[in-house]
């Protein structure tokens, strides 16, 4: 298939509009890629000369020929809706003819407590700390990578997740066992930060227009990434040389290697630690609404998948009688024998 230059004037126009509207950099990359594919699929015709018929043909091709997942097809649709609504000012009207990808029921990969323990024991240093946060707080990997120093509250044992998936904010638990190693890690991060400042750097990316509103905030300690990159790099949008957060692929590779070393015969990944967090909370009797808030799910039905994993009812509640029996009530114990 013929290629389309990444720096074509039209794609640059789309890119600039997305930046004006404060779209995340990853969303920008994904949407640009799908728009490129759409144009190439139709032999490089300009989108202004195409419409609903061509969009339906492209999305149907993805489902029928490429066999993409429903999420991938939906992502492509969102990109094209943005293209026609925001860029071309010509909203799509009728897309009823799209052949939809079939949604297969997907059970999350969940590790047992012993498997989590074995996985963590095969990780060291920074990767161990990150994996502990993923499992101990139910964080998504990128949420963890984007944490700032000010997001950690040691007194309340909580972590503020700012602008998580879907742009939502939430507060999650911080395991008390991680306070000491996390505090030590921050000491080493602060040393790097102070060295960067001394060398004329030390500023980090700030979301939205905060950098203009608070010109000095990007150089403050509270805004620094908890897991900074080992090297400075050029910001692809502003062209400024600064230290970004750690590349998530390094953590993914370390966890995959730890899974193999631990002898875990499951397709486990970083996200499996988040699934395990939710499942183990349910097994301990946590309320599903609380778990929904911890995970940041908009719909309770998304959280309820974990009740199917452990094979218990929708509320996943442990009977209070169990606690009474464990406390040693003689009458109840004799009655159960």
Explain this structure.
The protein has helices spanning 9-20, 25-41, 52-64, 70-87, 113-121, 125-137, 141-145, 179-198, 210-213, 248-261, 270-283, 288-295, 300-303, 305-310, 320-327, 330-336, and strands at 152-153, 158-161, 170-173, 233-234, 241-242. The chain is mainly α and 337 residues long. The strands form 2 sheets. It has a 3-stranded antiparallel sheet. It has a two-stranded antiparallel ribbon with strand order 4-5. Helix 1 (9-20) runs antiparallel to helix 2 (25-41), helix 2 crosses helix 4 and helix 3 (52-64) packs antiparallel against helix 4. The chain is 51% helix and 4% strand. Among the domains are: 9-87, DNA polymerase, domain 1 (Orthogonal Bundle), CATH 1.10.150; 113-248, hpI Integrase, Chain A (Orthogonal Bundle), CATH 1.10.443. The chain is built from 16 helices and 5 strands. The chain is globular. Mean pLDDT is 88; it is low at 313-317.
List the keywords:
two-stranded antiparallel ribbon, DNA polymerase, domain 1, 3-stranded antiparallel sheet, hpI Integrase, Chain A, 337 residues, globular
Radius of gyration: 24 Å
Q: Give the helices and strands as they follow along the chain.
A: HHHHHHHEEEHHEEHHHHHHH
Strand order of the largest sheet: 1-2-3
Structural class of the helices, strands and pairings? mainly alpha
Mean pLDDT: 88
Q: How would you summarize what this structure contains?
A:
The protein has helices spanning 9-20, 25-41, 52-64, 70-87, 113-121, 125-137, 141-145, 179-198, 210-213, 248-261, 270-283, 288-295, 300-303, 305-310, 320-327, 330-336, and strands at residues 152-153, 158-161, 170-173, 233-234, 241-242.
């Amino acid at each position: 298939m013929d290629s389309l230059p990444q720096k074509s004037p039209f794609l640059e126009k789309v890119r600039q509009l997305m930046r004006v509207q404060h779209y995340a950099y990853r969303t920008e990359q994904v949407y640009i890629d799908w728009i490129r594919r759409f144009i190439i699929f139709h032999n490089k015709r300009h989108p202004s000369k195409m419409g609903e018929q061509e969009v339906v043909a492209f999305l149907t091709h993805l489902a029928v020929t490429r066999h993409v997942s429903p999420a991938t097809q939906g992502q492509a649709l969102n990109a094209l809706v943005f293209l026609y609504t925001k860029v071309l000012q010509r909203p799509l009207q009728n897309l009823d003819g799209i052949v939809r990808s079939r949604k297969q029921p997907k059970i999350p990969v969940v590790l047992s407590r012993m498997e989590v323990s074995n996985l963590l024991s095969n990780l060291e240093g920074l990767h161990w700390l990150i994996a502990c946060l993923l499992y101990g707080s139910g964080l998504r990997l990128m949420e963890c990578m984007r944490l700032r120093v000010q997001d950690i509250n040691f007194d309340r044992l909580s972590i503020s997740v700012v602008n998580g998936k879907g742009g939502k904010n939430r507060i999650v638990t911080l395991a008390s066992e991680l306070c000491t190693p996390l505090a030590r890690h921050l000491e080493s991060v602060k040393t790097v930060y102070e060295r960067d400042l001394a060398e004329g750097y030390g500023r980090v990316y700030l979301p939205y227009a905060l950098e203009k509103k608070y010109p000095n905030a990007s150089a403050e300690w509270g805004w620094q990434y908890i897991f900074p990159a080992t090297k400075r790099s050029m910001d692809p949008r502003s062209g400024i040389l600064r230290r970004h957060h750690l590349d998530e692929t390094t953590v993914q590779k370390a966890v995959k290697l730890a899974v193999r070393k631990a002898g875990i015969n499951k397709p486990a990944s970083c996200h499996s630690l988040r699934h395990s967090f939710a499942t183990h909370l349910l097994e301990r009797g946590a309320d599903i609404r609380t778990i929904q808030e911890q995970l940041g799910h908009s719909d309770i039905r998304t959280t309820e998948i974990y009740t199917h994993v452990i094979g218990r009812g929708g509320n996943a509640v442990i009977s209070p009688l169990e606690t009474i029996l464990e406390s040693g009530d003689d009458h109840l114990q004799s009655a159960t024998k």
